[in-house]
Automatic annotation (TrEMBL), chains A, B:
It comes from Methanoculleus chikugoensis. Coiled coil: none annotated. This is Acetyl-CoA acetyltransferase. CDD domains: SCP-x_thiolase. NCBIfam families: PRK06064.1 (NF004720). The lineage of its organism: Archaea, Methanobacteriati, Methanobacteriota, Stenosarchaea group, Methanomicrobia. Residues 242-385 form the Thiolase C-terminal domain. Residues 4-224 form the Thiolase N-terminal domain.
Amino acid sequence: MRDVAVIGVGCTEFGEHWGTSFRDLFVKAGALALEDAGVTGEKIDALYVGNMSAGRFVEQEHIGALIADYAGLATNHVPSTRVEAACASGGLAFRQAVIAVASGMEDIVVAAGVEKMTDVGTGASVDMLASAADREWEGFAGATFPGLYAMIANDYMHRYPLTREQLAQVAVKNHENGARNPIAQFQNRITVDTVLNSSLVADPLRLFDCSPITDGAAAVVVVPLDRAREFTDSPVRVLASAQASDTIALHDRRDISTMDATVAAGKRAFAQSGLAHKDIDMVEVHDCFTIAEICAIEDLGFCKKGEAGKLTADGVTALNGDIPVNTSGGLKACGHPVGATGIKQIYEIVSQLRGEAGARQVDAEIGMAHNVGGTGATVVVHILGA
Amino acid sequence: MRDVAVIGVGCTEFGEHWGTSFRDLFVKAGALALEDAGVTGEKIDALYVGNMSAGRFVEQEHIGALIADYAGLATNHVPSTRVEAACASGGLAFRQAVIAVASGMEDIVVAAGVEKMTDVGTGASVDMLASAADREWEGFAGATFPGLYAMIANDYMHRYPLTREQLAQVAVKNHENGARNPIAQFQNRITVDTVLNSSLVADPLRLFDCSPITDGAAAVVVVPLDRAREFTDSPVRVLASAQASDTIALHDRRDISTMDATVAAGKRAFAQSGLAHKDIDMVEVHDCFTIAEICAIEDLGFCKKGEAGKLTADGVTALNGDIPVNTSGGLKACGHPVGATGIKQIYEIVSQLRGEAGARQVDAEIGMAHNVGGTGATVVVHILGA
């Protein structure tokens, strides 16, 4: 297997793009990534696109071909493949691109993610997102994602010492980071009171515990490491690419407060890279809800079970902390266009490792991305190094 | 890159499975493939699943995880990835499995395809299938797949010498083959008159020119060639895996009667394998409509443009002809559960190359599979050898 490097990244602003179509969102992100990589379209060997549910959000399947076409790659008949794993679709698309280059089958590959969620109403969106859980045993019984993560939060808070204020601090920190990120959907700072006084969504989760409905797209370009210097002076190496599955339904898990797929994918990524936790300088985790960030920090092994709330309250995961988490603002503040999120995490890590993260810059040479589908039925973990 | 071999295949009966759920269909095909390969679940390293539109057909996304779970692979947290390219989803899932093994990243990988189409009405199905075309520029204008392929047929018949009777002969041949295939949806023989007297769907295409709405699943197991003999005495080698894209909308093509993506993927597959047309003993092509088989035979280079109608009428593509096409019965008679079709093609070729095709057995050492998404925006071509 060949070593793989990222040579370019691009991302649209995340938000409610009423005037921009699904296909235009992608084209913008792709063009930014190609420009950043200094690669022209005719050199691209393959495309992998992460997308959760364009079939339901915009009544369009066959996303790979659509995007190859609108990106101007149909002329060369460039292979283009859509990958779907609910909210982990982006991370998986990146992983497939890495595998394609590592195999020697392709040289210059674009991995992208896109979702256009605001063409339908919020109620419809929530139902569409519920198709990431077990439709027959969860969705038909009325469970939505806020409800499922509320069950995780209740179970967690019953068993471990996590206060409501500590949980709110996850959102406060992520909004602080989002305020420093020009592509973030929410660039406003909030306080613990903002979270505690926001409307209840599914007890104990309130509005500011939840990531928003977002339109957006992100793209990155990967090549064999030994060709990276043809394109850039600052390639970012892919040190590990790991993926794990778990039961689709929450009620079938061994323990609903521990994402075993996160534990498994994290261990595999550390084993692949030969790195230890102390080597990781920053982490982008999948904070679709505040409780998800708490669980992720622990399940990836950055602290013991039950300690992540205090860690967050103590500022350890803040921009200036020992292990900055979600410097992009995370899903909470940067926004969560479900298929694009996993690629945006790679975008953020590459920006940080290159020292191009502006007001949210941290001192980092190695970063980790953690992307989750559903309530943890798919988890993808990548480690990147400058 | 490592050489890759297929060591096991499984397929459900194709048809209207009112009493079997989406997940049960897959589990059945997967179990058959594992039994055939002599592999137990705990040895599987990864899973790739082709599925077009479970999000719309059964309101379920996150298919990779769902299937890993119901196949009993969640316990080991086996990575599972859904791949979507409309009706080419199965072929692409096989290709991703081949890449994963070729890369050295995984050893024992299952590639599967599944679609459960009869949980919604036929009208809804037709609309869902239209999401494989350009929704904004074709679907919203009222174009359905029969309509799009009728345009291809009209253009083709205007320019090339193809009679209505020759076109019907494609369906007659495929029903003859389907009658010899125990998994086929339609096992009845028909005549040219059956086709010509069937109801008009979209002029000139009649009911018996169209593949049906089908439920079904298929699965195959791939491993590195150098490990294949651990599992089977009759491994089937993957000699080529090629993929190409084209514009999603038919009206943007250079020529609507020639699928340039088929031409490109076919040439790439021949180049990869070092084989010539005379080396290919049988072909499974994507006959979603009779006209599609005519175009495929020509665009893959088995005859010149305009000759495939006569070739078919002369029996060259029949079971006992020089180049048997769609020995399985094709999409027309075997049925077309859209995400499963590409894997069923591999199933058929492996069955033939092993000499296990029963009443439809042909003399074949090398076979080709041709799987199309939409009206040719994605094409996947594989060559397999005994």
